[in-house]
Specification:
7 helices; Rossmann fold; 5-stranded parallel sheet; 135 residues
């Protein structure tokens, strides 16, 4: 992947949609300086929010221009190994975050998130929060 590519986690996208800082301005900055996208799992999480709440707060419009990295066989293999390792270390981060991390690892993508506590447990995954996002 291009070294300017960046995966936007669901937490940061929701902050953007709700205009909550520091996530909202971090998304604007990220889109201006990186090739941004989401994993298929992030897309699912946002779309599930629409169906569950019965209202769209801009999720569909936000997802439209973003690249979506797939959860494929290679990501499934990575996720299975990663999840087993995290559980063995008593550091489970939940299935959806494992799947997101696996897609990022397969595509060599850093992730921008407000949930660094989970993603920092994943070896070899570059994790950014709004205050550490490179220009």
């Amino acid at each position: 992947m291009d070294n300017r590519s960046l995966c936007l986690d669901t937490s940061i996208l929701i902050a953007f949609l709700r205009n909550r800082e520091p996530g909202a301005s971090a998304v604007v900055e990220a889109v201006q300086s990186h090739q941004c996208g989401v994993t298929a799992i992030n897309s699912y999480e946002l779309l599930f929010g629409i169906h569950r709440s019965g209202k769209d707060i801009g999720e569909n419009a936000l997802l439209g221009p973003l690249q979506v990295w797939p959860f494929d066989k290679q990501a499934a293999e990575q996720a299975a190994q990663l999840h087993a390792d995290l559980i063995a270390r008593n550091q489970d981060i939940g299935v959806k975050d494992v799947l997101i991390a696996a897609v990022c690892l397969v595509h060599n993508l850093p992730i921008l998130t407000l949930n660094a506590k989970h993603f920092e447990r994943v070896p070899s995954l570059t994790v950014y929060i709004p205050s550490t996002l490179p220009a």
